[in-house]
Amino acid sequence: MANKLKNCSGCGRLYLDTGVGICPDCQQKELDAEDMVAAYVRENQGCTVAEVCAATGISEKIVRRMIRQGRFSNIPGAEFRYPCAKCGEMIDHGDYCFSCQRQITADLVAQQQKAMANAAARKTAGMYSMDIRNGKR
Description:
Blueprint: E1 4-7, E2 14-17, H1 24-43, H2 49-56, H3 60-68, E3 82-83, E4 90-91, H4 98-127
Antiparallel strand pairs: 1-2, 3-4
């Protein structure tokens, strides 16, 4: 939710969140870092995330977040790949490969169906429970 007082995940300072998720100072630092990474990638097409981090001094966590957000998709030669968070297959966007996304979705659908079936069974059981001693419901 926007316009709430929060601690910045970058530096820990209090700031008024406008929906960006970090304070204005950290946001500016991240924009500067993005420009630095973009310039390096333009000059060194086909480089890896590790090479970018080593050359620019920007942490891998920040570079990967930028990649997942698609910040370099319009730069020729920016073909970063990193491991899927679940299986380790190399991917170029998001957190999960296509196969893991399908499996996670299938698992969630199965859990939802099971929960709905359990709820329906409880409702049905409650409707037909009788007090056998008195012959009453």
